[in-house]
Amino acid sequence: MKIEILGTGCSKCKALFENVKTAVAQNNIFAQIEKVEDLVKIMEYGVMNTPALVIDGEVKSTGKVLNVDELKELLK
What we know:
Elements: E1 2-6, H1 11-26, E2 32-36, H2 39-44, E3 52-55, E4 58-62, H3 68-74
Parallel strand pairs: 1-2
Antiparallel strand pairs: 1-3, 3-4
């Protein structure tokens, strides 16, 4: 599983990144987690609001910090 956090490095982006790491660890999921700060790559996904969560190439959330429980549900 490949998980990407799209954002320019703001506090919300960092919080989402940490929540994703926690959710992955709690679910015992093997995943590649990557932080994407390149605006061109972010725009390629059509994302206008950050932070955004992309799982296996599909945008799952934009513009909000999902909590660990919400992320665990998405990662099932």
